[in-house]
Fold:
Amino acid sequence: MHGFLFLYPMLRKSLFVLLLISNLFVFGQTKTLAEYEKELNTLSLDIVNNDSDESKLKSNEKFKALLLKAIETEGSFEYNFKGIQAISILKSNEVIKIYNWTLPRKDLTYEFFAFVQVKLGKDKFKVTELFDKSASLEKPEYKTLSNKNWYGALYHKIIFDKKLGKNTYTLLGWNGGTNLTNQKVIEVMTVSNSGAIRFGSSILKVGKKAQKRVVFHYAESAVMSLKYNPTEKVIVFDFLAPPNSNLNDVFEYYGPSLDRFDSFKIENGKWEFTPNYDAKLNRNLKDDIWNDPKK
Structure:
């Protein structure tokens, strides 16, 4: 009996130690990518749908921190994160992956966010956060920018072609502009061997002038098409114009012409502007961006 009384405190202490180790093991476990994805989806929808700008900003900060942890998790480059509804994820050349989203405010303005994940070698990556300064940048068409003063946009297409350079990527995207206008953007992103990001490269040639990027301005109520035709390797877009010449450069009145598309095509290592692209020649492209008036 006395032996049992002596052992009981020792047994209780051992059980406590085992329980403590067990709890440390559970809390020390990292989340799976699927678990991250589920939490990120909830936050992403709150960023878009919440009625309060303040609540959106709080959710956005949580989303950024959690997404960064997910990106830094092993296997994230291969994982598609399709369960996150309010995000654009683009991947190219098995080297670049962009995680990109927007925060819409009640005043009809937008702020854009992104992480760029660059593969530097086997199981070695560099992650760079982009900071949207589009609202304060003047004449962005002629500026070279870094991740600290990015011309923010929500990208829907990434184009890689060796003719433009082995580390050069062309991005097509949308920027909310002002409460009276919208914007579409053709951006050029270059990536150094060390994974450093730069935006703007003089490979967009309009006439004799070369631009760092192209920004299209048009009315809030209008819909502009900006697409890539991979068969012909051309960027095709609506020609924008005001209803009459008295409204030239008053972009809140600009909209797509009903009968004209323009394009950029790769010539001599640059995107060369070509007016009057015939979208009707390509049935697949026409189905997406050209409405036959007879229908």
In short: The radius of gyration is 25 Å. Residues 1-11, 15-28, 289-295 have pLDDT under 50 and may be disordered. DSSP finds four helices and 15 strands in the chain. The CA atoms of residues 103 and 257 lie 30 Å apart.
